[in-house]
Each structure stands twice: as structure tokens, then as C-alpha cells.
Design goal:
Number of strands: 8
Structural class: alpha+beta
Shape: globular
CATH topology: Gamma-B Crystallin, domain 1
Radius of gyration: 12 Å
Helix content: 10-25%
Distance between the termini: 26 Å
Strand content: 35-45%
Mean pLDDT: 86
Number of helices: 1
Order of helices and strands: HEEEEEEEE
Length: 93
């Protein structure tokens, strides 16, 4: 298993095991220029490439399909950002 695949699987595990809290992430998630305050759930975009600026306290996961379907292609840790040529949606717990 490659390093990137291991990082994505690890981030997915962290995101999905966040102690069962019902609260949204604290902060702002910016998806292709659109800010989402205290986000929770899946955010789709039709802007390419997808840009993610994670100013929250949770790991965001980028998916290649709409509605956060399929396998995640990359994690975006808190305080980090990225541009994803094949990203179509972002999930944050």
C-alpha cells in the first residue's frame, strides 16, 4: 500500500471515528471559493479544479465523485489547503 493511500485511509478512519459527536466542525471550510461556517456533511462543487481551504478543527476528505461517493482521494488536515484536479465533493464530520 502506498504512502498516499495509507494517509487517506488513516484520515478516513479519524474522520469517521470522531467520538460520535453530533456537533459540526468549528471554523470555516472554503470549497472552491464558497465559505461554509461550522460545516458538517458533504459539499459538492462544479468548479474545476476543486480548491479546499480547511480552517476548521476537523480533517476534510476530498472525493472524486459527487455527493461524497466512492473512495476519498485526499485528506485536507485542519489549517491546510489543496487543489484537486479530479475532486468533485468534500466531506467534513
Amino acid at each position: 500500500m502506498g504512502i498516499v493511500a495509507a494517509a487517506v485511509i488513516g484520515a478516513l478512519g479519524l474522520a469517521l471515528s470522531s467520538a460520535g459527536t453530533a456537533a459540526a466542525a468549528q471554523g470555516t471550510l472554503i470549497v472552491s471559493g464558497t465559505p461554509h461556517n461550522n460545516p458538517s456533511g458533504c459539499y459538492n462543487t462544479d468548479h474545476y479544479p476543486l480548491s479546499v481551504d480547511n480552517r476548521t478543527d476537523e480533517v476534510a476528505l476530498v472525493f472524486s465523485g459527487p455527493d461524497c461517493q466512492g473512495a476519498p482521494i485526499a485528506p485536507v488536515p485542519p489549517g491546510e489547503s489543496g487543489i484537486f484536479e479530479f475532486g468533485q465533493s468534500v466531506y467534513i464530520p
